[in-house]
Structures are given as structure tokens and as C-alpha cells.
Amino acid sequence: MRFTRVVLPALFVLASACASSQTNDNELRAVTPKAKKDPNVITQEELQDPAITSRDAYTAIRHLRPNFFVYRGPTTYNDPSAGATQFSTDYGPLRPLKELASMNTFTFVEVRYLNADQAQNRFGINANAGPVIVLVSNKDAQ
Length: 142
Known about the structure:
- By secondary structure, this protein is α+β, with helices and mostly antiparallel strands.
- It is about 35% helix and about 15% strand.
- It has two domains: about 1-35; about 40-140.
- The chain contains five helices and five strands.
- It has a five-stranded mixed β-sheet.
- The radius of gyration is 26 Å and the shape is elongated.
- The relative contact order is 0.15.
């Protein structure tokens, strides 16, 4: 008698635990996986988010990809600005980040992060051994 009092509730708990984990597995399989975001690219869809479009370009990019602005210090003692992040619009001339604060994100279709090596390959010594943020604009919107 005592055996059935202990075993039956234990079996019930075990059966219900197995049943609930089985439905959770089925629910997880039914959910489609989200597309992975490229950590080095901000897409037009992200830029069109209403919470982002109301901000200036610097704040929007900082909100979406804060790692774009990581500064690891100067790469040389001769030039303290070496290694600093810069930006370019449509792969044009490099400009300081402070100018991003006066821009909006309406015309941009993509924001791309180039690490120091990629920036050096694209912009040469103008990249100053630092990363570059490239803003790609929609030519038709201008």
C-alpha cells in the first residue's frame, strides 16, 4: 500500500515532465530560425526602424552596432590620431566621426564596418591604420 502511494505520484510526475518536454521540442522545431545579422553591416531595414530614423547618424549607428566605435588607442607615438575610427560616404574622402552627429539616416541603404586591414586596402594610408565606417547612400533619394 505504501509502495503504491510513493510510486504512483512519482510516475505521474515523470510522465508529465516527459510530455511537457516533448511539446517544447516540437514547438522549438516549428519556430523558423531568424536570419543572422552580419555584425559588420547595418541594413536598410534596420535603418528604417522608427526608433532609429528619429536619431542622428552617430547615435543610430552607436545604438545598432556599438562595436563599430571601439577604440583601441593610438597605433604609434608619432601620430596620436592613428588608429582612430573615421567614416566615408559612398567610399569618398575620409572624415572624422564627429561629423556623423549632423547627418540623418534617411538616405542611407547600408552602413558597413571595415576593420583596419580592410580600410587600409581600400583607402590606403588615408585610413591611418584604423577602422572605417562606410555609409552607402541611395543615389535616387538625393
